[in-house]
Write a structure and sequence with these properties.
Helices cover 51% and strands 6% of the residues. By secondary structure, it is α/β, with parallel strands linked by helices. The protein has a five-stranded parallel sheet with strand order 2-1-3-4-5.
Length: 350
């Protein structure tokens, strides 16, 4: 074997060694992602776990059921069991589910609308407030949640124009890129797995974090969830010192409004009744909402042609844990209000 052939063999051996090393390295990476990270995200990550389970929930038939969607204002402000029981007292046998997600907005909600429609509910109640229709709400709450909703499919051309190129950028990632992106969850997932599974540390994981949600939050769509501690009146006022909490709504037809228009048009086209609830907020928060914002908000909701009900100023500060989330007492008072609206609609045959 001459020198050139020897050199060629060495280069080939080096290349094969590198390829083999990469393969060997990828095997444990795949196992960690598949059996540790994916499971951890499903069970312990509040937002991704709930988002994933919502998609699974929509795969089941829910003919005639009532879905209540929105942000954490819905999750913490409406008791599905109480609403359902009050309906049954009037012989209206409909299952009620609270399907809100923290930081959800009409624009993000569009990405799972087809899934929702496929489950065939009888009615969708949309819990809304000012911050869902502000320019700041145009940012997708979570790129990971956004990608999960797409389920590897291209975004629907019917509503693709609602999103900016920057917002769509995560959807252009290949399955391989998404797979490697999960490395950002490796440390926390492996750490929790080691403490929970290997060392049986009962105080690890979720029990040791500051989350206000129980673990079942990711998969239970009936129980209401609430902050465990009510803020003082002074703390509620201090929350509003930051002007970003003023939630200005403009007169422009921005992407959030277009998304809500799309949702409120698409649902009735699929024989799904829809109504909007302007959710209660604390008097402190309500008092800093400008009249122009309130006017633009009401004007837009009227333009949708969907019936909407205003509960913004119905409750005292004592009914809230903070500037806008109802506490147990507030929720117990508000849930029957939702039931009464539904009973009235069903009695009228609407």
């Amino acid at each position: 074997m001459d020198l050139s052939e020897t050199k060629h063999v060495k280069i080939t051996a080096i290349i094969l060694s590198i390829i083999l090393s990469i393969i060997i390295a990828l095997i444990p990476y795949y196992l960690l992602i598949h059996y540790v990270v994916d499971v951890d995200l499903q069970e312990n990550n509040e937002e991704l776990g709930r988002a994933n389970n919502l998609l699974n929930f929509y795969e089941q038939p829910h003919d005639g059921d009532i879905f209540i969607i929105g942000t954490s204002l819905v999750n913490e402000g409406i008791d599905a069991y109480l609403v359902e029981d009050l309906l049954k007292e009037k012989h209206i046998n409909r299952s009620v589910y609270v399907l809100g997600e923290n930081g959800d907005s009409p624009l993000e909600r569009v990405t799972k609308l087809d899934n929702l429609i496929a489950s065939k509910p009888g009615m969708v109640v949309i819990g809304l407030s000012y911050c869902s229709l502000t320019p700041d709400a145009n940012d997708i709450y979570s790129d990971d949640r956004f990608l999960l909703r797409l389920q590897g499919k291209p975004i629907n051309d019917k509503y693709k124009s609602l999103f900016s190129e920057e917002q769509l950028e995560p959807s252009y990632k290949t399955p391989l890129e998404r797979f490697f992106d999960k490395r950002k969850f490796l440390f926390s997932s492996v750490d929790r797995y080691a403490r929970d599974k290997l060392f049986k540390n009962e105080k690890s994981g979720r029990a040791n974090n500051l989350s206000r949600y129980p673990k079942s939050y990711t998969s239970n769509f009936k129980d209401p969830w609430a902050h465990t501690i009510n803020k003082t009146e002074m703390e509620k006022k201090e929350e509003l010192m930051d002007t970003k909490f003023r939630c200005p709504v403009s007169d422009d037809l921005d992407p959030q409004k277009k998304a809500l228009q799309y949702i409120t048009t698409k649902l009735p086209q699929n024989n799904i009744k829809v109504m909007i609830i302007n959710m209660p907020i604390s008097p402190y928060f309500s008092n800093v909402i400008s009249e122009s914002t309130r006017h633009n908000y009401s004007k837009f909701l009227n333009s949708t042609g969907v019936p909407w009900y205003d509960y913004e100023r119905e409750y005292l500060s004592e009914s809230f844990t903070d500037k806008w989330h109802l506490n147990v007492a507030g929720r117990t008072g508000f849930s029957p209000e939702i039931a009464a609206i539904l009973i009235n609609l069903f009695m009228k045959g609407e």
